[in-house]
Amino acid sequence: MTDDFALHERLEADTAFISDLPLTRVLLMRDVRYPWLILVPRRPGAVDLDSLAQDDLRDLFLEARLASLALKRLFTPDRINVGALGNMVTQLHLHVIARFEDDDAWPGPVWGAHPALPYDAATLEERLHQLRAALTH
């Protein structure tokens, strides 16, 4: 990866680091309501999917699949939502969110449904440990 990669300040503030996959930095959104991963390609200047080379685009979707499978194994959600929105943060990032028919935002989107409900320290550490293990298997 390149040394020029820097995580957008909003992503830095709203997430916790899980791990680096070959292409992406994997982050956990700091909202205990939703098992919500964010994958950020470590490519400086990447804004949209067409910012990526073809091989990187393939790798992004393979890593999103890995994240989706990890969330399914850990949480048995009703759905996995995947989206790339850049309205608040222009740095290219992919949301991979485990959704449940009884979650606080169902059936609508999670964005803006409620203020984030932060993790307590112990729950955050346990969730990060679970996700790191699931992403390496």
UniProtKB/TrEMBL annotation:
Keyword Transmembrane helix in record: no
Key words, A-Z: Hydrolase
Taxonomic lineage of the native organism: Bacteria, Pseudomonadati, Pseudomonadota, Alphaproteobacteria, Rhodospirillales
Highest taxon, organism lineage: Bacteria
Keyword Hydrolase: yes
Annotated ranges, domain HIT: 37-106
Family matches, as Gene3D superfamilies: HIT-like
GO terms, molecular function: hydrolase activity
Protein's name according to its UniProt entry: Diadenosine tetraphosphate (Ap4A) HIT family hydrolase
Pfam families reported in the protein's UniProt record: HIT (PF01230)
